[in-house]
Design brief:
Length: 188
């Protein structure tokens, strides 16, 4: 699960949207420096990541990557899940995707001091909303892979693993509702 799915899960469980994103930023187990709602959001993000990585659907999807690409499979699959979720958004939420992205991004941006404390750039609401919405189209997905690759030691390896993201998203899409329901149960 990438940003969009984490936010959807947090929103559905009425937990911190900022914590759902900070789960990728904050390091370590000691969350005492954060407000309780954000710390809970970070913990839930980590539980969702662990459950997703162990889920049979994701294990099967990961096995379809070439041996040299499996190291990057999790990143590609997380993005593919967000793409599949965005394509089927009306089946998962009565709120239009654009409205959800704006609302979620505004809430995440309002927690800017906690991102700075974690050593990250404070999120810009407009830019973050655009990023979330970009998962719905192919150009946005390509840009997301390229942006992540720039932060890696061997960016070409991620980009090579990511060439099949469309196929992975198509394979995940019909099974995504069941995966999301399993993750919703973890949030309770």
């Amino acid at each position: 699960m990438n940003f969009l799915a984490h936010l959807w899960l947090a929103d559905g469980s009425r937990t911190s949207l900022a914590g759902a994103i900070l789960g990728d930023v904050v390091r370590g187990a000691d969350l005492s420096a954060y407000p309780n709602d954000i710390a809970l959001g970070i913990r839930l993000h980590r539980r969702i990541d662990a459950a997703t990585d162990r889920h049979p659907l994701m294990l099967a999807a990961r096995s379809r990557f070439a041996p040299g690409e499996r190291r990057y499979a999790g990143i590609v699959l997380d993005l593919a899940c967000d793409h599949a979720l965005s394509l089927d958004w009306p089946a998962h939420s009565p709120e239009p995707l654009t409205d959800f992205c704006r609302r979620a991004a505004a809430e995440v941006a309002s927690a800017a001091p906690w991102f700075v404390q974690a050593g990250a750039r404070p999120p810009d609401a407009e830019g973050f909303a655009a990023l979330l919405q970009s998962y719905a189209d192919e150009d946005g997905m390509t840009t997301a892979l390229q942006r992540i690759a720039r932060r890696m030691r061997e960016p070409d390896r991620l980009l090579q693993a990511g060439t099949g993201w469309r196929r992975h998203a198509q394979e995940l899409q019909p099974q995504l509702p069941a995966l999301l329901q399993n993750l919703v149960a973890i949030m309770q």
